[in-house]
């Protein structure tokens, strides 16, 4: 038996030797790239005469094929990044900005610093939500708290990561006591409105309230006593006095609550200290400000976008003169407000220079950080 297998092994060795099937190849070293390139080319141009030559050509070709495929994959990822929020969060391009944020203190905390209530009411069917408050004078009543109800969870609630209990019939405490607010800031034309619209399309509990839209609507109202004043401020790129703006925002939030909205994107607000103080005085503790989504883009890009928008927007301030004035106001008055929220670790920065879809993927990731119990 032993003799038999020895003979077999000998035969194989002999066979290899005859056909030159040894593992060693004679040719350029692995790192000799010009030599290997020459051999790789010969694979296509000069047919091998022996197996040894053929193997060398394959070995040389393999080096370039491997680098080519890997390089191609990396290039394609860079040129056509996946539309995934995870890719955006963890892609190599963002490592640098994350590293920087760790030192500048703008990075969001890794772990939750406070308890976040479950938005169970928003997850359940509309009939489980309490009746909304009536439209009341801004000076006397703040934004009505959302219902704090004890309710029986449906399967929809149990499917959500926010639900307190996972059983379909479990009793769940609806925690949110106040409407939640996310301020949306960024320069004129950064794409705030575009992304807010996408959030509201995707998540029905959110309502988009644009301070600029509210002011423009008020200006159109023939019965408004503030119309002329608003018009002149907007044309000059100045910030309208907060008493007017916050009243309109408050009214819009109350209307949204009546329609069952629990989360509000307040777009283009607060734009200066006057806005900050006015919000505190009128809304104050009756709404919970979760954070600020900040869309960052260069002035040149924003100018280009605004001029593009001016073709169809019909806005009195979408012209070069007003745009420049708005930029000046943004730099002088709004940036200090961002710094205030940055110190409170409430700013969630989004690179708005990319395409709409790319920004959207990043916006969703950031929204999850601002409002961790998002159904996203
Ligand atoms: N990521 C983007 N890339 C290119 N154009 C964009 C992007 N986001 C928005 N836009 C366009 O730029 C213009 C301004 O966007 P908008 O959302 O109205 O800005 P904002 O609300 O910040 O003033 C619009 O015409 C919009 O279609
Ligand atoms: N909080 C606010 C928001 C907007 N305004 C006024 C002044 C702004 O130039 C205009 C337009 O604001 P809007 O947010 O609609 O537009 P841009 O972001 O500047 O493109 O409205 C204001 O006075 N106070």
From TrEMBL:
Region feature (LID): 308-318
Cellular component GO terms, alphabetical: cytoplasm; nucleus
Name of the protein in its database record: UMP-CMP kinase
Binding residue positions for CMP: 275
Keywords: ATP-binding, Cytoplasm, Kinase, Membrane, Nucleotide-binding, Nucleus, Pyrimidine biosynthesis, Transferase, Transmembrane, Transmembrane helix
GO biological process: 'de novo' pyrimidine nucleobase biosynthetic process; nucleoside monophosphate metabolic process; pyrimidine nucleotide biosynthetic process
UniProt-listed SUPFAM superfamilies: P-loop containing nucleoside triphosphate hydrolases
Chain residue ranges for the region called NMPbind: 210-240
Top-level enzyme category: transferase
Family assignment from sequence similarity: Belongs to the adenylate kinase family. UMP-CMP kinase subfamily.
EC numbers on record: 2.7.4.14
Catalytic activity: UMP + ATP = UDP + ADP; CMP + ATP = CDP + ADP; dCMP + ATP = dCDP + ADP
Gene Ontology molecular function: ATP binding; nucleobase-containing compound kinase activity; phosphotransferase activity, phosphate group as acceptor
Location relative to the cell: Cytoplasm; Nucleus
Domain comment as written in the entry: Consists of three domains, a large central CORE domain and two small peripheral domains, NMPbind and LID, which undergo movements during catalysis. The LID domain closes over the site of phosphoryl transfer upon ATP binding. Assembling and dissambling the active center during each catalytic cycle provides an effective means to prevent ATP hydrolysis.
Transmembrane helix as UniProt keyword: yes
Binding site for a ribonucleoside 5'-phosphate: 216, 238-240, 268-271, 315, 326
Residues involved in ATP binding: 189-194, 309, 354
Cofactor binding mode and count: Binds 1 Mg(2+) ion per monomer.
Quaternary data: Monomer.
Required cofactor(s): Mg(2+)
């Amino acid at each position: 038996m032993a003799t038999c297998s020895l003979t077999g092994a000998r035969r194989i060795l002999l066979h290899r030797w005859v056909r030159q099937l040894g593992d060693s190849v004679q040719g350029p070293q692995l790192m000799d790239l010009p030599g290997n390139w020459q051999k790789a080319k010969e694979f296509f141009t000069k047919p091998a005469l022996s197996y040894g030559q053929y193997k060398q050509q394959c070995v040389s070709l393999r080096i370039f094929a491997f680098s080519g495929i890997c390089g191609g994959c990396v290039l394609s990822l860079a040129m056509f990044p996946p539309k995934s929020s995870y890719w955006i969060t963890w892609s190599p391009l963002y490592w640098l900005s994350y590293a920087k944020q760790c030192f500048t203190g703008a990075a969001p905390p890794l772990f939750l610093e406070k308890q976040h209530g479950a938005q169970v009411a928003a997850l359940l069917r509309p009939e489980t939500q309490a009746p909304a408050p009536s439209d009341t004078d801004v000076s006397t009543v703040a934004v009505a708290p959302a219902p704090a109800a004890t309710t029986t969870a449906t399967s929809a609630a149990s499917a959500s990561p926010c639900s307190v209990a996972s059983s379909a019939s479990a009793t769940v405490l609806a925690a949110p006591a106040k409407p939640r607010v996310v301020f949306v800031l960024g320069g004129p034309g950064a794409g705030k409105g575009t992304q807010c619209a996408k959030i509201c399309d995707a998540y029905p509990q959110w309502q988009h309230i644009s301070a600029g839209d509210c002011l423009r609507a008020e200006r159109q109202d023939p019965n408004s006593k503030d119309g002329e004043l608003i018009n002149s401020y907007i044309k000059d790129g100045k910030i309208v006095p907060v008493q007017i703006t916050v009243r309109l925002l408050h009214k819009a939030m109350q209307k949204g609550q009546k329609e069952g909205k629990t989360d509000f994107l307040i777009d283009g607000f607060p734009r200066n200290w006057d806005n900050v103080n006015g919000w505190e005085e009128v809304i104050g503790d009756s709404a919970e400000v979760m954070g600020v989504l900040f869309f960052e883009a260069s002035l040149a890009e924003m100018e280009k976008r605004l001029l593009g928008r001016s073709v169809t927007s019909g806005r009195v301030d979408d012209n070069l003169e007003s745009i420049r004035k708005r930029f000046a106001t943004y730099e002088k008055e709004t940036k200090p407000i961002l710094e205030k929220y940055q110190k409170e670790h409430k700013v969630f920065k989004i690179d708005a220079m990319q395409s709409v879809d790319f920004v959207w993927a990043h916006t969703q990731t950031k929204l999850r950080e601002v409002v961790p119990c998002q159904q996203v």
